[in-house]
Write a structure and sequence with these properties.
With 329 residues, the protein is an all-alpha fold. It is built from 13 helices and no strands.
Length: 329
């Protein structure tokens, strides 16, 4: 029976990876077809030649500065989340953030980021750190889902022109989803109650209880950091899109970007190959407002490289400081 379970588990794992590999392959085939379109390349070349060089340098510089601001805000949030039971300095928080980014780049759905961060905490507090980070991650997800759901409802109404009653049903569902996300975030103890009600998880209740220690005002504080981060990387996308495609109105760029973030939040992937999925998703969304496919994919690639690859390279320095064993418990 045990061997059957092991085989079944291994089979499921291989099937999961096979599906992901197929999705990634299809994505890159899609991108190759876009890039091999000579007419599209000509249009993109025309766009590039029209872009003012000093403006381009300025925008890229601002995007890089916003990347640093983004992770500074995340470091401040992480420092705040850990202050109750494992106080760390802002610099230690910054080190752990960048170290986590280095480990996240090769792991599905960025799970390595949890390990990278908590290894900078005292050994007896590392499991607590995982659940504290879960609160911050959930807060960021709530912001993405709330903004993304609202933008998706606008997208469906503005571009898809579906049946009125179907849209009303979608609108009602969307509003209900937004309300539920906010309720569960600000009542995180309900999540803890649900986890503690699962028999085989009861023995871990002391770790789940870490999440219960965050009160409403503290969750509001964390939410503030989440909103600030969301605004920061949304502005990055606006800057590069406006540089390459200035004819698209600001509100359309931002709302489509919110939908893009929402879709990305539910797609399982790995950072190192994430560029393909991101580019294909953004291209399909933005084709409702522009046919400059290569420009859209170039914009997404720049943000991907700036926000994920550069920080991961910087974080590799901090990986060397990890202490897997510590005798001073």
């Amino acid at each position: 029976m045990l061997s059957v379970q092991i085989v079944t588990g291994q089979t499921k794992k291989w099937i999961s990876w096979a599906i992901k590999a197929i999705l990634v392959a299809l994505t890159f085939v899609f991108i190759y077809r876009r890039l091999s379109n000579s007419e599209g390349l000509k249009h993109f070349t025309d766009i590039i030649t029209q872009v003012n060089r000093s403006a381009a340098i300025t925008v890229v510089g601002v995007i890089a500065a916003l990347m640093l601001l983004n992770y500074l805000l995340e470091a401040m949030k992480w420092k705040y989340l850990t202050h109750k039971w494992a106080p760390i300095s802002l610099w230690q928080s910054i080190e752990s953030i960048f170290c986590g980014l280095s480990l996240a780049i090769f792991t599905p759905n960025r799970w390595g980021e949890f390990g990278g961060r908590v290894m900078f905490l005292p050994p007896r507090r590392r499991v607590h750190g995982v659940f504290a980070m879960a609160v911050g991650t959930f807060g960021q997800l709530v912001v993405t889902c709330v903004a993304g759901s609202a933008a998706l409802l606008w997208f469906v109404y503005y571009f898809l022109h579906i049946n009125q009653w179907v849209y009303i049903a979608m609108l009602t569902t969307g509003i209900g989803f937004i309300v539920l996300m906010l309720i569960f975030y600000f009542n995180v103890r309900w999540v803890v109650f649900l986890l503690n009600s699962i028999p085989f998880l009861k023995k871990y209740h002391r770790f789940f209880d870490v999440m219960k220690r965050y009160r409403f005002n503290e969750l509001m504080h964390v939410m503030g950091y989440c909103v600030a981060r969301f605004a920061t990387y949304s502005f990055q996308y606006y800057l590069i899109m406006h540089l390459l495609l200035p004819e698209i109105p600001m509100f359309k760029i931002l709302l489509l970007t919110f939908v893009f973030f929402f879709i990305q939040s539910v797609l399982p992937t790995i950072d190192i190959v994430d560029i393909g999925v991101r580019s294909a998703t953004a291209d399909k969304l933005f084709e409702y407002v522009t046919q400059q496919h290569i420009a859209v994919m170039a914009a997404v690639a720049l943000i991907w490289f700036t926000n994920l690859i550069v920080p991961a390279i910087l974080g590799s320095v901090f990986v060397l400081k990890l202490k897997f064993f510590d005798n001073n418990l």
